[in-house]
Amino acid sequence: MHTLKQKGADQMHKALLIIDYTNDFVADKGALTCGTPGQKIASSILKLADDFLQQKQWVILPTDLHQKNDPYHPETKLFPPHNLKNSWGRELYGPLANWYQTNKNDDHLYFFDKNRYSAFANTNLENYLRRRKIDELWLTGVCTDICVLHTAIDAYNKNFELVIPRNAVASFDPQGHTWALNHFKNCLGAKIV
Question: Start and end of every Isochorismatase-like domain (predicted)?
């Protein structure tokens, strides 16, 4: 497991993004679940989250929020209802839910709603990062080839350095997962650890 080094004056400011790690995307009965691949990355995500907070780096949880049968949202035509407001499906999955409750008052922890694949679309994420002089993003969560991928592309286009911990991302599509890891490295210049 790759861990953070002690922060020095010349090191970058970093943020760990834990993308869409909710019951609907990870739990066995989730509406769009990754199932076992998503569940297997829980301990890696929690280890990274602890490391980031201990080093006074940022942990950010961009989390899908949808309305049931929203006629104006493109995902309504593509997927069954998921991550609906005030639903079990939108709650953080298992161990991450407990971790979040324990740490939710930490100034370096930020949970926010998103309504597109990319955590940058229609959100204040870029402003949040720039104000804190964060220039390196570690992307974790699900799905490797959908929301993690679209967030990575936007981050690349906004000149953020990218790190993808391979044991902290997952997808329901093994081929899509492998393709996305290659794309992160070969087209976005991400460091795969």
Answer: 15-188
- pLDDT tens for each residue of 115-155: 999 999 999 999 999 999 999 999 999 999 999 999 999 99
Say how far apart CA 99 and CA 41 lie, in whole Å: 14
The structure tokens listed for 185 are 């490295």
For residue 63, list its beta bridge partners.
Answer: 113
Distance CA 156, CA 119 (A): 13
Would you state the structure tokens that stand for residue 193, as one six-digit string?
């650890």
Q: What is the tens place of the pLDDT at every residue in 161-186? A: 999 999 999 999 999 999 999 999 99
Which residue type does 86 have? N
Distant-in-sequence contacts of 50-54, Cβ < 8 A, 24+ apart: 50/99, 51/3, 51/4, 52/4, 52/14, 52/15, 52/16, 52/108, 52/138, 53/103, 53/106, 53/108, 53/109
Structure tokens of 4?
Answer: 């953070």
First to last CA, the chain: 8
DSSP letter string, 152-164? HHHHHHTT-EEEE
Class of domain 16-192: alpha beta
Residue 110 bridge partners (DSSP): 60
Residue pair 161/137 in contact (Cβ under 8 Å)? The answer is yes
> What residues have CB less than 8 Å from 138, skipping those under 6 apart?
14, 15, 16, 17, 48, 52, 163, 164, 165
